[in-house]
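To whoever is covering the structure queue this week,

Two jobs came back overnight. Logging them here so there's a record in the thread.

Job A:
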Amino acid sequence: MSYKLMKFLSLLMIIFLSFINPSSSFASHIELKPCIEISHCVKEVLDVENADLPFEKVKTIIKNSPRTEIIEIDDDYLHAEVTSRIMKYIDDLEISYSPDKNNIVIRSESRVGEGDFGVNKKRVENLINKFLES
């Protein structure tokens, strides 16, 4: 086979396999992954039945949070990276809004380490408190 044909077939196979085994960015935006290591992960459900535009409120809170960069917004899903102040570790913050269930699921997890000194729990609690105050 010629080199160009091999290259084309390889590319075609990669594209095909990416649809069979999609990356995590294709994951359901309704159901966030459970926390496997609870020592550095927090997942909470916030009831938003009586709130006006709850997903927009959460987005605004996150946009105004220090050291936080929104990486992906897709309809009812948001993924942000939060950088720690001193060590510059990156934590993942995910938000999933379910209008049919009238709730927002918030998940915050450290990428490295065995513990987080309660940082993710505080982050989620602060986000919920700011949401409830607005």
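Job B:
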Amino acid sequence: MKYLQEHEKLLSDLSETELNTLCFEVDYCVEKQQYKVCEYDIVIEDSDTFVRRTVLKEKIQKIYEDSHQNYGAPKITAELRKSGERVAEKTVGNYMHEMNIKAHYIKPWTKTTVSKNFSNRLRNILKRDFDPASPDAAWCTDITYIWTYDDGFVYLTSVMDLFSRKIISWVLTKDMTAESVLEAIKIAQKRRNIRKPVIIHSDRGIQFTGELYKEITEKMKRSYSKKACPWDNACIESFHSLIKREWLNQYKIQNYEDAYKLIFEYIETFYNTVRIHSHCNYQSPNQYEKSYVKSN
């Protein structure tokens, strides 16, 4: 026990969890300056090493926060070395693991092009009010990727009426140009023949912030999700996940034509007309809108 007494100051630096493990046999190896506790080795650091580790962790935390939590061990190591620190990338990675911090992971192939216009003019008018009292009070729109073996990615743009969750228009395109994607908005306007301003909500993709979109939606109230916040457009995001999970993922989609047929079949002959929704009191979107018309 004399060794424990001699190192009482160093033991005080251990965490409560580490101290709690000191309930079995303690073997002290003078040559390695190491305690063996049960099956674990607890390294007893001298005070200078402890201070350096603490200071280094504080620097790592600051660089991590300054990067908006985007930097991982390689970039943080580079920043530390710029300031004169001599440290290995593996050490930085180990410290980050102990601190429970890591760089954000971005899924490949899922993020659409985001407009550089982050102006406060792109306001969220909808504010996640996904239950309007009548049809054509609020629409939402978004784009999703669909993989085909021959044609690569094709792009589904959908417009949903939030009252009934009905997909009131959709287009499938081989590119993501504004002209191709925004055709869905034009189709929705013709089909619904709206006579009053309607809120139309989207993310900040470049197709939805450009001049052509502003021209097409001139008489509508444009609403935008916050940057990198898919929950602001949750209903259309959910639909695009649904069509893939319930339908598209069951097939090997060969090309654009195959994808078009499958999407048409799902939306026009099932989702809008047959599939019941809890939001619609377990009616299909078409039935729910007809019920509204009858009661009003």
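Note for Job B: Residues 1-6, 21-42, 105-115 have pLDDT under 50 and may be disordered.

Please reply-all if you pick these up so we don't duplicate work.
Q.
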